[in-house]
Amino acid sequence: xxxxxxxxxxxxRFAGIDVYLHxxxxxxxxxxxxxxxxxxxxxxxxxxxYLALFAIVLMHEFGHSLACRSVGGRADQIILxxxxxxxYVDPPQRPGPVLWSIVAGxxxxxxLVPVLSVMLLLSRSLGWPSIMPDTYKFIxxxxxxxxxxxxxxxxxxxxxxxxxxxxxLLWFPLGRARSLITASIIxxxxxxxxxxxxxxxxxxxxxxxxxxxxxxxxxxxxLCVFVVMNCGRGLVAGLAMLRADNMPRRSEFACxxxxxxxxxxxxxxxxxxxxxFDTFATGALCPQCGIQYPITGCPDCRVSSPIDQWxxxxxxxxxx
Length: 320
Prior knowledge:
The chain is of the alpha+beta class. Helix content is 55%, strand content 12%. The chain is built from 9 helices and 8 strands.
């Protein structure tokens, strides 16, 4: 349930990273701007406010992408959509690089907190609330948006940044698979709390006849669906990783990147016939369509290397 390039408008390319805007973002923009109608003397300020939110989210996603590339990972695409932004990052599959790639996003918001706070305090000391009320409200709103995004994003609910940071931290003591399983289960617990909060808001609004407030629950409900789907996928992926980790390994081979021995089984898929096969059992040859694969990907770290570099030299017998 993540946005793709399909249905997205390419905005620009910066530092080798393509930035796309999903079509559904425009729906939220119209809704968000109209929802804040009356906060300023002119609707232009509402547009500025939403563009500022756009800029904060974009900087956050660039934090993820640039951090991932700094540790040797792959990150070349960002897509903005109604639930924020998605930086498609693929860091080296080790806890340290994964943790840095995730932490760098919220770190951007952390850096913005003192910057926007100084601007807010300075505008207040200059008397802008009375002489330039729209400008002061705009700065205050941007300050609140950034702080709200930071607070929400670091909640330990998978797949929010907080949940992924928790997963990366658990990776150190628990390993790749168990950390993902644990983070997904904790995400379900956090989701239960989020659902309870949404239900409480709805109940309060219905009792006070605040019909407009009930409409604002649309996005929390969508967010709950998004979280439950991704927590479920994380749990399934973690269980699959755990099964793979417990599979017998081929000790005569080792990944040149992470030094892990490949598992025995059909963990590779042919790009032509889409049939799974065991590349080390067939000599990197698809048994269905006969295609030879000189490059083999590691199921553990996902780094691809020439098949001949996987061979582990036989130990030299000791001299008698």
